[in-house]
Amino acid sequence: MQKNQILLKFTFGICFLISCLFLSAQPLHHTNQNLPCVNKNYNLLAHVAVDSSGRTPIYSTDELDSMIVKLNDFFSPICVSFTLCEFNIMENDYSLGRVVSEPITKEDQLLELKTRFALRRRINIFFLDYIISEDCGLSNFEGILTTNDAIIYTETDCRDDIAEQVAHHLGHTFGLLNTHDPETIELVDGSNCTTTGDLICDTPADPFGQGISNATAEEQELIAQGLLVTRFSSQDCEFIYEIKDPNGEYYQPDMGNIMSAYPCKCGFTKGQYRLMAETILKSNIRHF
Fold first, then answer.
1. Residues of 185-199 as b/e, b for ≥16 C-beta within 10 angstroms?
2. Would you call 30 exposed, middle or buried from its count of C-beta atoms within 10 A (0-12, 13-18, 19+)?
């Protein structure tokens, strides 16, 4: 079998501010038609680290104001918006922005930041330089449902821009999982979508992070010969992974989904918006 006979590529269009077009079954949504309107504005507390040279904040207020504009566009379909209510520079100590495993553990360092700077019943975002063993920050799943765990830690060492990174972690905070789950295999036909992946059925199956052990014997042989692509995307947001699902179908993930791991983020699906709205409406976190 020649490579050009098995190569299947899915090229996605340019991501615009107003809408994103995809070749997969469900588009991303940027209007609130048929979606709940929760009518909430959240005050974000920005805790910003300083750099190691000039001891200046790693992000300026102008940069974070621009981030807010993009966040408000991402979440407008369910009438959720954000306001930067506090810009807190975390002292003249650049080490606060680099979370490593010494002299105390990563977990203890993050807890120290939270204890020293975070306020309860708010969404606190820590803008850091680096967090060891993390890929583009971290956050607590359904953190909005607690009074003190709506905490997001971001990293400048990330392929996503800051608005995309924060939007992704707000998605987790509001109850969304990643579109991919390396521990389960979601089928392209969606027949097991309620029990695998992100458990949302209008986000197509996403194989990101799955090992080649899931490949068939024939695919394994092609991989060994260098005739099958096992990386997931190119820099121009082209999906190029060539391993099929257990039913023999090619994957077609939404590479523009904010909850994906691809550097092409531009929107959520209707199912994701509905789940976030449901989670938000259960929350007692202060807003307005």
1. ebbbebeebeebbbb
2. middle
pTM score? 0.89
CA distance linking residue 271 with residue 273, whole number of Å: 5
- Enumerate the domain spans of the chain: 40-176+270-281
Give the C-alpha separation, 208 to 173, whole Å. Answer: 21
DSSP secondary structure letters along 125-164: EEEESEETT-SS-EE-TTGGGSSS--EEEEESS-SS-HHH
Residue 207 has pLDDT above 50, yes or no: yes
SS3 assignment, position 103: coil
Give φ, ψ of 233 to 5 degrees. Answer: -155, 160
pLDDT tens for residues 106-150? 999 999 999 999 998 889 999 999 999 999 999 999 999 988 889
Specify the fold of 40-176+270-281: Collagenase (Catalytic Domain) (3.40.390)
d(CA 249, CA 255) in angstroms, rounded, equals 18
